[in-house]
Design goal:
Distance between the termini: 32 Å
Strand content: under 5%
Largest sheet: none
Order of helices and strands: HHHHHHHHHHHHHHH
Shape: globular
Number of domains: 1
Length: 302
């Protein structure tokens, strides 16, 4: 499988000569996927470091492929609601986006196969759920949030798969990013036309459940001081905009809360990484957040 990867990567890099393709990839979001795998790697006990580069490459390609195909499947509605996006604006062709997205997903699975067999299976599952979400799931309000949340939960487990036996008793950690992203996705459905207070309430409850799960981890750990500081900063970053969106679910407030929620997923991972691997490793994860924030100033997040 890996023998086909260099050709796919060369085609991907060729496409990146265009700013339109870079916009399509949403680079800030892709960086947050690295934090998922780093946190999962910490949960696994930081095993053989040789597998980590493969897993980081895999998650980058899987996430990037997902956001590219998301725009491909949304191209018709984007012509009406978001004409500035790369495909409806004409900066990227629909066929070019489809090919690039497929190549990225394939490369992600191929890279994961070089880490562990378990990582290969999880990467394959991520690719499948990404396609399900992009092509069908996101159009169903009852399915979309769980579908997206499952993709991010599996992304954390992709990092844990560096040491497959760790999955036996540590897989419940993935419920934290599941609850967090479930809340962000529920709220995000009102970005264009506004939302409903009931949906914003569900999003806030789900977000709170993720924060409580993190608090449980923090107060059972030996890194209470540092991890509690990161958790407090996370709560300060995401709870107020979610509360404002619930009070008045207009598009601008929802969009602000969603962007803050997406970028702050790095803080969720930093808490987990600090709990399982100490403050230095947590700081490495936080550094990906700085990169994501810098990229968010140049490229769209939603």
């Amino acid at each position: 499988m890996l023998s086909r990867t260099p050709g796919a990567i060369s085609l991907i890099l060729h496409g990146l000569r265009s700013r339109g393709y870079l916009d399509l990839l949403r680079p800030a979001n892709v960086v947050t996927a690295l934090a998922d795998v780093l946190a999962g790697y910490a949960v696994a006990g930081r095993p053989d470091p040789g597998s980590l580069p493969w897993l980081l490459g895999a998650t980058s390609c899987l996430y990037a492929g997902g956001v590219v195909l998301n725009d491909f499947f949304d191209r018709d509605i984007d012509r009406i609601e978001r004409p500035e996006r790369p495909i409806p604006s004409g900066r990227v062709t629909a066929n070019g986006a489809a090919v690039m997205g497929a190549l990225l997903l394939t490369a992600g699975v191929a890279l994961a196969s070089q880490a562990t067999r378990t990582a290969l299976l999880i990467a394959f599952a991520i690719a499948g759920f990404v396609l399900l979400y992009d092509a069908w799931g996101k159009r169903h309000p009852a399915i979309a949030p769980a579908n997206m949340a499952l993709c991010r939960a599996l992304n954390l487990l992709l990092g844990v798969a560096a040491a497959p036996p760790a999955l036996d008793d540590r897989w419940p950690i993935a419920l934290i990013p599941f609850a967090y992203i479930f809340g962000v996705t529920v709220l995000s459905r009102g970005e264009v036309h506004g939302g409903r207070r009931q949906a914003a309430t569900v999003a806030l409850i789900s977000l709170s459940a993720a924060l409580l799960g993190l608090a449980f981890l923090v107060f059972r750990s030996g890194q209470i001081f540092v991890s509690a500081l990161v958790l407090a900063f996370l709560a300060w970053r995401v709870v107020p905009p979610f509360l404002r969106a619930r009070t008045n679910p207009e598009p601008a407030r929802i969009r602000t809360a969603v962007v803050r929620g997406v970028l702050s997923l790095v803080l969720v991972n930093a808490v987990i990484g600090t709990v399982y691997a100490g403050p230095v490793f947590g700081a490495v994860i936080l550094a990906t957040g700085l990169v994501a924030g810098w990229l968010a100033r140049m490229f769209a997040v939603t």
